[in-house]
Design goal:
Layout (H helix, E strand, L loop, with lengths): L2 H11 L2 H13 L4 E2 H8 L3 H13 L3 E6 L2 E6 L1 H12 L24
Antiparallel strand pairs: 1-3, 2-3
Length: 112
């Protein structure tokens, strides 16, 4: 994933409403949700939602399709996995990492 794309994705997610929208769409799965369902799910007015969806679309974290008169939004799982891969590609100095729990991490942040 390109650094520019990573920065755009992280910037889009660095806002409470957009993060809530994205997490809701991840939970909904590939079928996505209509805009009205998203607004209801995160508890904001539909007029405010369009701004946040535009930001997520611009960052390529969300896809938009039309079903009849409804716009359906879904998480872009490929972009999400690319972002996660970018953030973890140098994890543990290139060594294979095991799942980390709080109990096996030191105060300095080193995990075993």
């Amino acid at each position: 994933m390109e650094v520019k794309s990573v920065i755009a994705a992280l910037a889009a997610l660095a806002q409470e409403t957009r993060l809530a929208v994205f997490r809701l769409l991840v939970q909904a799965g590939p079928s996505g949700l209509a805009a009205a369902q998203i607004a209801e799910g995160v508890g904001i007015a539909p007029s405010l939602l369009s701004f946040h969806l535009k930001e997520l679309l611009h960052a390529d974290l969300v896809t938009q399709t039309r079903e009849g008169r409804s716009l359906i939004y879904a998480a872009n799982f490929e972009a999400m996995n690319g972002l996660l891969g970018f953030l973890t590609e140098n994890c543990c100095g290139g060594n294979v990492c095991s799942p980390v729990t709080v109990s096996n991490c030191s105060k300095e942040g080193a995990c075993s």
